[in-house]
Amino acid sequence: MISADFGSPQATLFLLLGLAWAAVSFPRFIRWRTRTAMLKAIPTLGPSGFLSGYIGMYRFFSNGRELLQEGYDKYPNGVYKIALMDNWAIIANGRVMIEDIKKAPDAQLDIKEANGDTLQVEYTLSKQVILNPYHVAVVRTPLTRNIATRFAEVRDEIVAAFADLIPAQEDWVKISAYTTSFQIVGRTINRFFVGLPLCRDPDWLDLNTHFAVNVFISAQIINLFPGFLKPIAGHFLTRMPASMKRANKHLAPIIKDRLAKEEEYQTKDWPGKPNDLISWLLDEAKDERTVPELVLRVLAVEVAAIHTTAFCSTLYELTAHPEVIEPLREEIETVVKESGWTKEGISKMRKLDSFLKETLRFSGNVGLSVSRKVLQDFTFSNGTTVPAGVTIGVPAYMHHHDEDLYENADTFDAFRFYNMRSREGESIKHQASSPNLDYIAFGAGRNACPGRFFAVYELKSLIAHILMSYDVKLEQEGIIPAYEWHGATKDPSSTGVVLFRKRQEC
Protein backbone atom coordinates (compact mmCIF):
# COMPACT_ATOMS: atom_id res chain seq x y z
CA MET A 1 0.00 0.00 0.00
CA ILE A 2 1.25 3.48 -0.89
CA SER A 3 0.77 6.18 1.69
CA ALA A 4 0.82 9.90 0.96
CA ASP A 5 3.04 12.12 3.00
CA PHE A 6 0.96 15.32 3.13
CA GLY A 7 3.76 17.05 4.95
CA SER A 8 6.23 16.58 2.11
CA PRO A 9 7.31 19.58 0.01
CA GLN A 10 5.88 17.96 -3.12
CA ALA A 11 2.46 17.47 -1.55
CA THR A 12 2.45 21.02 -0.25
CA LEU A 13 3.33 22.29 -3.72
CA PHE A 14 0.52 20.26 -5.33
CA LEU A 15 -1.90 21.47 -2.68
CA LEU A 16 -0.95 25.11 -3.26
CA LEU A 17 -1.20 24.67 -7.03
CA GLY A 18 -4.64 23.09 -6.61
CA LEU A 19 -5.82 25.93 -4.40
CA ALA A 20 -4.45 28.50 -6.84
CA TRP A 21 -6.18 26.77 -9.74
CA ALA A 22 -9.45 26.68 -7.80
CA ALA A 23 -9.09 30.34 -6.82
CA VAL A 24 -8.73 31.31 -10.46
CA SER A 25 -11.16 28.83 -12.00
CA PHE A 26 -14.05 29.00 -9.55
CA PRO A 27 -14.84 32.71 -10.08
CA ARG A 28 -14.55 32.15 -13.83
CA PHE A 29 -16.93 29.22 -13.58
CA ILE A 30 -19.38 31.30 -11.58
CA ARG A 31 -19.18 34.14 -14.15
CA TRP A 32 -19.69 31.64 -16.98
CA ARG A 33 -22.73 30.13 -15.24
CA THR A 34 -24.13 33.57 -14.52
CA ARG A 35 -23.58 34.74 -18.10
CA THR A 36 -25.16 31.55 -19.46
CA ALA A 37 -28.19 32.05 -17.21
CA MET A 38 -28.58 35.68 -18.34
CA LEU A 39 -28.42 34.70 -22.00
CA LYS A 40 -30.78 31.77 -21.50
CA ALA A 41 -33.36 34.14 -20.01
CA ILE A 42 -33.37 36.23 -23.19
CA PRO A 43 -35.69 34.81 -25.89
CA THR A 44 -33.93 33.42 -28.96
CA LEU A 45 -35.05 33.97 -32.52
CA GLY A 46 -33.94 31.26 -34.91
CA PRO A 47 -31.62 28.28 -34.28
CA SER A 48 -29.32 28.45 -31.27
CA GLY A 49 -27.53 25.11 -31.03
CA PHE A 50 -23.78 24.66 -31.45
CA LEU A 51 -24.13 23.71 -35.12
CA SER A 52 -27.58 25.11 -35.86
CA GLY A 53 -26.27 28.51 -34.72
CA TYR A 54 -24.29 28.60 -37.96
CA ILE A 55 -27.56 28.20 -39.84
CA GLY A 56 -29.02 31.05 -37.80
CA MET A 57 -26.09 33.28 -38.61
CA TYR A 58 -26.41 32.50 -42.33
CA ARG A 59 -30.12 33.22 -42.17
CA PHE A 60 -29.42 36.54 -40.48
CA PHE A 61 -26.92 37.53 -43.16
CA SER A 62 -29.04 36.39 -46.12
CA ASN A 63 -32.52 37.27 -44.78
CA GLY A 64 -31.84 39.93 -42.21
CA ARG A 65 -34.93 41.98 -42.98
CA GLU A 66 -37.34 39.06 -42.54
CA LEU A 67 -35.66 37.91 -39.34
CA LEU A 68 -35.59 41.37 -37.77
CA GLN A 69 -39.22 42.01 -38.74
CA GLU A 70 -40.22 38.69 -37.19
CA GLY A 71 -38.44 39.68 -33.98
CA TYR A 72 -39.96 43.17 -34.02
CA ASP A 73 -43.47 41.72 -34.32
CA LYS A 74 -42.90 38.93 -31.81
CA TYR A 75 -41.15 40.97 -29.10
CA PRO A 76 -42.58 44.52 -29.25
CA ASN A 77 -40.92 46.80 -26.69
CA GLY A 78 -38.75 43.88 -25.66
CA VAL A 79 -35.38 42.22 -26.10
CA TYR A 80 -34.38 39.04 -27.94
CA LYS A 81 -31.20 37.46 -29.30
CA ILE A 82 -29.94 36.01 -32.57
CA ALA A 83 -27.04 33.54 -32.78
CA LEU A 84 -23.90 34.75 -34.53
CA MET A 85 -20.77 32.76 -35.36
CA ASP A 86 -19.34 32.77 -31.83
CA ASN A 87 -21.52 35.23 -29.93
CA TRP A 88 -25.00 36.70 -29.74
CA ALA A 89 -26.58 39.80 -31.25
CA ILE A 90 -28.96 41.33 -28.73
CA ILE A 91 -31.83 43.16 -30.44
CA ALA A 92 -33.85 45.76 -28.52
CA ASN A 93 -37.22 47.01 -29.80
CA GLY A 94 -39.11 50.18 -28.98
CA ARG A 95 -38.79 53.61 -27.41
CA VAL A 96 -38.37 52.40 -23.82
CA MET A 97 -35.42 50.20 -24.75
CA ILE A 98 -33.82 53.06 -26.72
CA GLU A 99 -34.24 55.36 -23.72
CA ASP A 100 -32.56 52.76 -21.48
CA ILE A 101 -29.59 52.47 -23.85
CA LYS A 102 -29.39 56.23 -24.26
CA LYS A 103 -29.19 56.83 -20.49
CA ALA A 104 -26.55 54.16 -19.80
CA PRO A 105 -23.02 55.40 -19.00
CA ASP A 106 -20.26 54.76 -21.52
CA ALA A 107 -18.45 52.61 -18.96
CA GLN A 108 -21.36 50.18 -19.18
CA LEU A 109 -22.52 50.46 -22.79
CA ASP A 110 -19.82 51.65 -25.19
CA ILE A 111 -20.40 52.89 -28.74
CA LYS A 112 -16.70 52.92 -29.68
CA GLU A 113 -16.27 49.22 -29.00
CA ALA A 114 -19.51 48.43 -30.84
CA ASN A 115 -18.36 50.35 -33.91
CA GLY A 116 -14.94 48.74 -33.63
CA ASP A 117 -16.50 45.27 -33.76
CA THR A 118 -18.91 46.15 -36.56
CA LEU A 119 -16.14 47.59 -38.76
CA GLN A 120 -13.46 45.20 -37.46
CA VAL A 121 -11.17 48.22 -37.23
CA GLU A 122 -8.23 46.18 -35.96
CA TYR A 123 -7.94 44.78 -39.49
CA THR A 124 -9.74 47.29 -41.74
CA LEU A 125 -8.24 50.44 -40.15
CA SER A 126 -6.28 50.30 -36.90
CA LYS A 127 -7.09 49.48 -33.28
CA GLN A 128 -5.68 52.90 -32.40
CA VAL A 129 -8.77 54.47 -33.97
CA ILE A 130 -10.82 52.99 -31.11
CA LEU A 131 -8.23 53.27 -28.34
CA ASN A 132 -7.82 57.01 -28.86
CA PRO A 133 -10.64 58.35 -31.06
CA TYR A 134 -9.57 61.98 -30.98
CA HIS A 135 -10.73 62.39 -34.59
CA VAL A 136 -14.31 62.16 -33.27
CA ALA A 137 -13.73 65.33 -31.26
CA VAL A 138 -12.48 66.99 -34.46
CA VAL A 139 -15.68 66.03 -36.30
CA ARG A 140 -17.87 67.10 -33.38
CA THR A 141 -16.33 70.54 -32.88
CA PRO A 142 -14.01 72.28 -35.41
CA LEU A 143 -15.40 70.45 -38.43
CA THR A 144 -19.01 71.25 -37.53
CA ARG A 145 -18.23 74.83 -36.49
CA ASN A 146 -16.61 75.54 -39.85
CA ILE A 147 -19.54 74.49 -42.05
CA ALA A 148 -20.64 78.11 -42.49
CA THR A 149 -17.08 79.42 -42.93
CA ARG A 150 -16.25 76.91 -45.65
CA PHE A 151 -19.71 76.59 -47.23
CA ALA A 152 -18.88 78.72 -50.28
CA GLU A 153 -16.07 76.30 -51.17
CA VAL A 154 -18.36 73.29 -50.73
CA ARG A 155 -20.95 74.93 -52.98
CA ASP A 156 -18.27 75.71 -55.57
CA GLU A 157 -17.17 72.07 -55.62
CA ILE A 158 -20.74 70.82 -55.97
CA VAL A 159 -21.22 73.00 -59.05
CA ALA A 160 -17.87 71.92 -60.53
CA ALA A 161 -18.38 68.22 -59.77
CA PHE A 162 -21.79 68.09 -61.43
CA ALA A 163 -20.52 70.05 -64.43
CA ASP A 164 -17.68 67.55 -64.88
CA LEU A 165 -19.61 64.35 -64.18
CA ILE A 166 -23.12 65.20 -65.45
CA PRO A 167 -22.86 67.99 -68.07
CA ALA A 168 -26.27 69.61 -68.56
CA GLN A 169 -27.62 68.52 -71.96
CA GLU A 170 -30.90 69.03 -73.78
CA ASP A 171 -31.48 65.29 -74.21
CA TRP A 172 -31.88 62.74 -71.44
CA VAL A 173 -28.63 61.04 -70.35
CA LYS A 174 -28.44 57.82 -68.33
CA ILE A 175 -26.32 58.11 -65.20
CA SER A 176 -25.23 55.33 -62.84
CA ALA A 177 -26.73 56.60 -59.59
CA TYR A 178 -24.51 54.60 -57.23
CA THR A 179 -21.14 55.18 -58.89
CA THR A 180 -21.79 58.84 -59.63
CA SER A 181 -22.95 59.40 -56.04
CA PHE A 182 -19.58 58.21 -54.78
CA GLN A 183 -17.70 60.48 -57.16
CA ILE A 184 -19.71 63.62 -56.39
CA VAL A 185 -19.75 63.11 -52.63
CA GLY A 186 -16.04 62.26 -52.69
CA ARG A 187 -15.17 65.54 -54.35
CA THR A 188 -17.52 67.57 -52.17
CA ILE A 189 -16.29 66.32 -48.82
CA ASN A 190 -12.65 66.47 -49.89
CA ARG A 191 -13.00 70.12 -50.86
CA PHE A 192 -14.06 70.65 -47.25
CA PHE A 193 -11.46 68.29 -45.77
CA VAL A 194 -8.29 68.89 -47.78
CA GLY A 195 -9.15 71.65 -50.28
CA LEU A 196 -7.81 72.31 -53.75
CA PRO A 197 -6.08 70.82 -55.65
CA LEU A 198 -6.03 67.50 -53.78
CA CYS A 199 -9.84 67.25 -53.70
CA ARG A 200 -9.83 66.82 -57.50
CA ASP A 201 -6.82 64.51 -57.76
CA PRO A 202 -8.08 61.32 -59.50
CA ASP A 203 -5.79 58.99 -57.54
CA TRP A 204 -6.73 60.53 -54.18
CA LEU A 205 -10.46 60.30 -54.96
CA ASP A 206 -10.15 56.76 -56.27
CA LEU A 207 -8.27 55.74 -53.13
CA ASN A 208 -10.83 57.21 -50.76
CA THR A 209 -13.98 56.01 -52.47
CA HIS A 210 -12.75 52.45 -52.96
CA PHE A 211 -11.13 52.28 -49.53
CA ALA A 212 -14.39 53.32 -47.85
CA VAL A 213 -16.33 50.61 -49.69
CA ASN A 214 -13.67 47.99 -48.96
CA VAL A 215 -13.73 48.75 -45.24
CA PHE A 216 -17.45 47.95 -45.01
CA ILE A 217 -17.32 44.92 -47.29
CA SER A 218 -14.23 43.47 -45.60
CA ALA A 219 -15.77 44.00 -42.16
CA GLN A 220 -18.92 42.13 -43.19
CA ILE A 221 -16.86 39.19 -44.41
CA ILE A 222 -14.54 39.12 -41.37
CA ASN A 223 -17.58 39.10 -39.08
CA LEU A 224 -18.69 35.83 -40.68
CA PHE A 225 -15.66 34.08 -39.12
CA PRO A 226 -15.34 32.89 -35.50
CA GLY A 227 -13.04 34.92 -33.27
CA PHE A 228 -9.98 32.69 -33.56
CA LEU A 229 -10.11 32.90 -37.39
CA LYS A 230 -10.70 36.65 -37.62
CA PRO A 231 -6.95 37.52 -37.57
CA ILE A 232 -6.37 35.20 -40.53
CA ALA A 233 -9.36 36.56 -42.45
CA GLY A 234 -8.32 40.11 -41.56
CA HIS A 235 -4.78 39.51 -42.80
CA PHE A 236 -6.00 38.46 -46.23
CA LEU A 237 -8.80 41.01 -46.55
CA THR A 238 -7.21 44.18 -45.23
CA ARG A 239 -6.27 46.92 -47.72
CA MET A 240 -4.73 49.05 -44.99
CA PRO A 241 -0.97 48.76 -45.76
CA ALA A 242 -1.43 49.50 -49.47
CA SER A 243 -3.93 52.28 -48.76
CA MET A 244 -1.67 53.90 -46.16
CA LYS A 245 1.23 53.85 -48.62
CA ARG A 246 -0.92 55.40 -51.31
CA ALA A 247 -2.40 58.04 -48.97
CA ASN A 248 1.04 58.84 -47.58
CA LYS A 249 2.18 59.87 -51.05
CA HIS A 250 -0.48 62.60 -51.09
CA LEU A 251 -0.61 63.66 -47.44
CA ALA A 252 2.95 63.31 -46.10
CA PRO A 253 4.31 66.44 -47.88
CA ILE A 254 1.35 68.50 -46.60
CA ILE A 255 1.67 67.26 -43.01
CA LYS A 256 5.45 67.73 -42.95
CA ASP A 257 5.07 71.27 -44.26
CA ARG A 258 2.51 72.09 -41.51
CA LEU A 259 4.80 70.69 -38.80
CA ALA A 260 7.75 72.64 -40.24
CA LYS A 261 5.71 75.84 -40.13
CA GLU A 262 4.89 75.25 -36.47
CA GLU A 263 8.57 74.78 -35.75
CA GLU A 264 9.50 77.88 -37.72
CA TYR A 265 6.98 80.16 -36.02
CA GLN A 266 7.03 78.35 -32.66
CA THR A 267 3.24 78.29 -32.55
CA LYS A 268 0.33 76.24 -33.86
CA ASP A 269 -1.36 79.41 -35.08
CA TRP A 270 1.17 80.44 -37.71
CA PRO A 271 0.31 82.97 -40.44
CA GLY A 272 -1.67 81.56 -43.37
CA LYS A 273 -2.49 78.30 -41.61
CA PRO A 274 -5.14 76.44 -43.69
CA ASN A 275 -8.53 75.91 -42.07
CA ASP A 276 -9.03 72.24 -42.97
CA LEU A 277 -9.21 68.71 -41.59
CA ILE A 278 -5.43 68.26 -41.44
CA SER A 279 -5.02 71.40 -39.33
CA TRP A 280 -7.89 70.41 -37.04
CA LEU A 281 -6.36 66.96 -36.51
CA LEU A 282 -2.93 68.46 -35.79
CA ASP A 283 -4.49 70.76 -33.20
CA GLU A 284 -6.28 67.90 -31.46
CA ALA A 285 -3.62 65.17 -31.79
CA LYS A 286 -1.46 66.27 -28.84
CA ASP A 287 1.32 63.65 -28.61
CA GLU A 288 0.23 61.65 -31.66
CA ARG A 289 1.47 64.06 -34.32
CA THR A 290 3.40 61.75 -36.63
CA VAL A 291 2.77 61.48 -40.36
CA PRO A 292 1.48 57.84 -40.27
CA GLU A 293 -0.82 58.64 -37.36
CA LEU A 294 -2.34 61.66 -39.07
CA VAL A 295 -2.69 59.86 -42.40
CA LEU A 296 -4.59 57.11 -40.55
CA ARG A 297 -6.99 59.65 -39.01
CA VAL A 298 -7.70 61.34 -42.33
CA LEU A 299 -8.57 57.94 -43.84
CA ALA A 300 -10.78 57.11 -40.84
CA VAL A 301 -12.77 60.34 -41.22
CA GLU A 302 -13.00 59.79 -44.98
CA VAL A 303 -14.47 56.31 -44.45
CA ALA A 304 -17.20 57.72 -42.22
CA ALA A 305 -17.95 60.64 -44.56
CA ILE A 306 -17.94 58.82 -47.90
CA HIS A 307 -20.98 56.81 -46.93
CA THR A 308 -22.79 57.88 -50.05
CA THR A 309 -25.70 55.47 -49.89
CA ALA A 310 -27.81 58.25 -48.32
CA PHE A 311 -27.29 60.46 -51.39
CA CYS A 312 -28.04 57.60 -53.75
CA SER A 313 -31.22 56.70 -51.84
CA THR A 314 -32.28 60.34 -51.80
CA LEU A 315 -31.77 60.56 -55.56
CA TYR A 316 -33.90 57.45 -56.08
CA GLU A 317 -36.70 58.79 -53.88
CA LEU A 318 -36.61 62.19 -55.59
CA THR A 319 -37.06 60.63 -59.03
CA ALA A 320 -39.73 58.24 -57.74
CA HIS A 321 -41.86 61.15 -56.47
CA PRO A 322 -41.95 63.78 -59.22
CA GLU A 323 -44.88 65.50 -57.48
CA VAL A 324 -42.48 66.95 -54.87
CA ILE A 325 -40.13 68.56 -57.38
CA GLU A 326 -42.04 71.81 -58.02
CA PRO A 327 -42.81 72.54 -54.32
CA LEU A 328 -39.14 71.96 -53.51
CA ARG A 329 -37.97 74.14 -56.39
CA GLU A 330 -40.26 76.97 -55.30
CA GLU A 331 -38.84 76.84 -51.77
CA ILE A 332 -35.23 76.70 -52.95
CA GLU A 333 -35.68 79.62 -55.37
CA THR A 334 -37.34 81.75 -52.69
CA VAL A 335 -34.65 81.01 -50.10
CA VAL A 336 -31.71 81.50 -52.49
CA LYS A 337 -33.15 84.86 -53.62
CA GLU A 338 -33.31 85.93 -49.96
CA SER A 339 -30.21 84.32 -48.41
CA GLY A 340 -28.11 83.07 -51.31
CA TRP A 341 -26.29 79.73 -51.44
CA THR A 342 -25.22 79.82 -47.79
CA LYS A 343 -25.44 77.63 -44.71
CA GLU A 344 -28.12 79.98 -43.42
CA GLY A 345 -30.05 79.59 -46.65
CA ILE A 346 -29.86 75.79 -46.60
CA SER A 347 -31.15 75.89 -43.00
CA LYS A 348 -34.28 77.69 -44.17
CA MET A 349 -35.19 75.00 -46.70
CA ARG A 350 -37.68 73.21 -44.46
CA LYS A 351 -39.51 71.26 -47.14
CA LEU A 352 -36.20 69.98 -48.47
CA ASP A 353 -35.15 69.06 -44.93
CA SER A 354 -38.42 67.15 -44.48
CA PHE A 355 -37.93 65.34 -47.79
CA LEU A 356 -34.44 64.28 -46.73
CA LYS A 357 -35.55 63.14 -43.28
CA GLU A 358 -38.43 61.16 -44.77
CA THR A 359 -35.95 59.48 -47.12
CA LEU A 360 -33.70 58.56 -44.18
CA ARG A 361 -36.74 57.25 -42.30
CA PHE A 362 -38.36 55.43 -45.20
CA SER A 363 -35.38 53.98 -47.06
CA GLY A 364 -32.30 54.78 -45.00
CA ASN A 365 -29.50 52.22 -44.99
CA VAL A 366 -28.85 52.14 -41.23
CA GLY A 367 -29.28 48.55 -40.04
CA LEU A 368 -28.83 48.20 -36.29
CA SER A 369 -28.75 51.69 -34.84
CA VAL A 370 -27.93 52.87 -31.29
CA SER A 371 -25.40 50.00 -31.15
CA ARG A 372 -23.48 49.52 -27.91
CA LYS A 373 -20.95 46.94 -26.68
CA VAL A 374 -21.86 45.74 -23.18
CA LEU A 375 -18.80 46.27 -20.98
CA GLN A 376 -20.62 45.64 -17.69
CA ASP A 377 -23.78 43.58 -17.19
CA PHE A 378 -26.73 45.81 -18.11
CA THR A 379 -30.35 45.58 -17.01
CA PHE A 380 -33.16 47.10 -19.07
CA SER A 381 -36.10 48.74 -17.34
CA ASN A 382 -38.25 45.67 -18.14
CA GLY A 383 -35.91 43.53 -16.02
CA THR A 384 -33.97 41.84 -18.85
CA THR A 385 -30.27 41.62 -18.00
CA VAL A 386 -27.69 41.48 -20.77
CA PRO A 387 -24.23 40.13 -19.89
CA ALA A 388 -20.93 41.83 -20.69
CA GLY A 389 -19.31 40.88 -23.98
CA VAL A 390 -22.28 41.08 -26.34
CA THR A 391 -23.50 43.96 -28.51
CA ILE A 392 -26.95 45.57 -28.36
CA GLY A 393 -28.61 47.16 -31.39
CA VAL A 394 -31.99 48.57 -32.42
CA PRO A 395 -33.44 47.62 -35.85
CA ALA A 396 -33.80 51.08 -37.39
CA TYR A 397 -35.81 50.09 -40.47
CA MET A 398 -38.46 48.28 -38.43
CA HIS A 399 -38.54 51.09 -35.88
CA HIS A 400 -39.03 53.72 -38.60
CA HIS A 401 -41.84 51.68 -40.20
CA ASP A 402 -43.78 51.21 -36.96
CA GLU A 403 -47.42 52.35 -37.28
CA ASP A 404 -47.45 53.23 -33.57
CA LEU A 405 -44.72 55.81 -34.25
CA TYR A 406 -45.64 57.06 -37.72
CA GLU A 407 -49.08 57.33 -39.31
CA ASN A 408 -49.09 55.45 -42.62
CA ALA A 409 -45.53 54.39 -41.87
CA ASP A 410 -45.19 52.39 -45.10
CA THR A 411 -46.15 55.39 -47.24
CA PHE A 412 -43.52 57.90 -48.38
CA ASP A 413 -44.73 61.35 -47.26
CA ALA A 414 -42.16 63.93 -48.37
CA PHE A 415 -43.58 66.73 -46.24
CA ARG A 416 -44.42 64.66 -43.15
CA PHE A 417 -41.88 66.47 -40.97
CA TYR A 418 -42.50 69.87 -42.58
CA ASN A 419 -46.11 69.59 -41.42
CA MET A 420 -44.98 68.56 -37.95
CA ARG A 421 -42.73 71.62 -37.72
CA SER A 422 -45.69 73.83 -38.67
CA ARG A 423 -47.41 72.98 -35.39
CA GLU A 424 -47.27 75.51 -32.60
CA GLY A 425 -44.10 75.21 -30.51
CA GLU A 426 -42.46 72.66 -32.81
CA SER A 427 -40.77 74.87 -35.40
CA ILE A 428 -37.27 73.78 -34.41
CA LYS A 429 -38.16 70.13 -33.87
CA HIS A 430 -38.27 67.30 -36.40
CA GLN A 431 -35.17 68.38 -38.35
CA ALA A 432 -33.21 65.77 -40.30
CA SER A 433 -30.19 66.23 -38.03
CA SER A 434 -32.19 65.92 -34.78
CA PRO A 435 -32.42 62.35 -33.45
CA ASN A 436 -35.12 61.39 -30.97
CA LEU A 437 -36.74 58.21 -29.67
CA ASP A 438 -38.74 57.82 -32.89
CA TYR A 439 -36.01 58.79 -35.36
CA ILE A 440 -32.69 56.98 -34.98
CA ALA A 441 -31.06 57.33 -38.41
CA PHE A 442 -28.11 59.05 -36.68
CA GLY A 443 -28.28 57.13 -33.40
CA ALA A 444 -29.52 58.63 -30.15
CA GLY A 445 -28.48 60.81 -27.25
CA ARG A 446 -25.02 62.21 -26.57
CA ASN A 447 -23.45 59.54 -28.78
CA ALA A 448 -25.46 60.41 -31.89
CA CYS A 449 -23.35 60.65 -35.06
CA PRO A 450 -21.11 63.73 -34.65
CA GLY A 451 -20.93 64.25 -38.43
CA ARG A 452 -24.70 64.40 -38.95
CA PHE A 453 -24.81 68.20 -39.28
CA PHE A 454 -22.30 68.26 -42.13
CA ALA A 455 -23.98 65.24 -43.74
CA VAL A 456 -27.38 66.95 -43.74
CA TYR A 457 -26.07 70.26 -45.11
CA GLU A 458 -24.15 68.41 -47.79
CA LEU A 459 -27.09 66.23 -48.86
CA LYS A 460 -29.52 69.16 -48.92
CA SER A 461 -27.04 71.21 -50.97
CA LEU A 462 -26.57 68.37 -53.48
CA ILE A 463 -30.31 67.84 -53.97
CA ALA A 464 -30.97 71.59 -54.16
CA HIS A 465 -28.36 71.91 -56.92
CA ILE A 466 -29.93 69.04 -58.87
CA LEU A 467 -33.38 70.59 -58.63
CA MET A 468 -32.17 73.98 -59.81
CA SER A 469 -30.02 72.66 -62.65
CA TYR A 470 -31.60 69.45 -63.98
CA ASP A 471 -34.74 67.53 -64.72
CA VAL A 472 -34.48 63.98 -63.40
CA LYS A 473 -36.48 60.78 -63.76
CA LEU A 474 -36.22 57.04 -63.28
CA GLU A 475 -35.56 54.71 -66.19
CA GLN A 476 -38.87 53.02 -65.39
CA GLU A 477 -41.37 55.55 -64.13
CA GLY A 478 -42.21 55.12 -60.45
CA ILE A 479 -40.07 51.99 -60.03
CA ILE A 480 -37.01 52.43 -57.81
CA PRO A 481 -34.26 49.89 -58.57
CA ALA A 482 -34.53 47.14 -55.97
CA TYR A 483 -32.72 47.74 -52.70
CA GLU A 484 -30.27 45.09 -51.53
CA TRP A 485 -30.25 43.75 -47.97
CA HIS A 486 -26.98 42.54 -46.46
CA GLY A 487 -27.69 41.29 -42.97
CA ALA A 488 -29.35 44.16 -41.12
CA THR A 489 -28.22 46.77 -43.65
CA LYS A 490 -30.37 48.00 -46.55
CA ASP A 491 -28.34 49.34 -49.47
CA PRO A 492 -29.58 51.10 -52.62
CA SER A 493 -29.16 49.33 -55.93
CA SER A 494 -25.59 49.52 -57.17
CA THR A 495 -26.72 49.07 -60.80
CA GLY A 496 -29.68 51.47 -60.91
CA VAL A 497 -29.87 54.27 -63.48
CA VAL A 498 -31.26 57.80 -63.17
CA LEU A 499 -31.86 60.02 -66.23
CA PHE A 500 -30.66 63.63 -66.22
CA ARG A 501 -31.15 66.49 -68.63
CA LYS A 502 -30.75 70.26 -68.51
CA ARG A 503 -33.66 71.79 -66.61
CA GLN A 504 -36.47 72.84 -68.94
CA GLU A 505 -38.07 76.08 -67.77
CA CYS A 506 -41.86 75.90 -67.75
Automatic annotation (TrEMBL):
The keyword Iron applies. Belongs to the cytochrome P450 family. It comes from Gymnopus androsaceus JB14. Pfam families: p450. The lineage of its organism: Eukaryota, Fungi, Dikarya, Basidiomycota, Agaricomycotina. One of its GO terms (molecular function) is iron ion binding. This is Cytochrome P450. Heme binds at residue 449. Keywords: Heme, Iron, Metal-binding, Oxidoreductase. Its cofactor is heme.
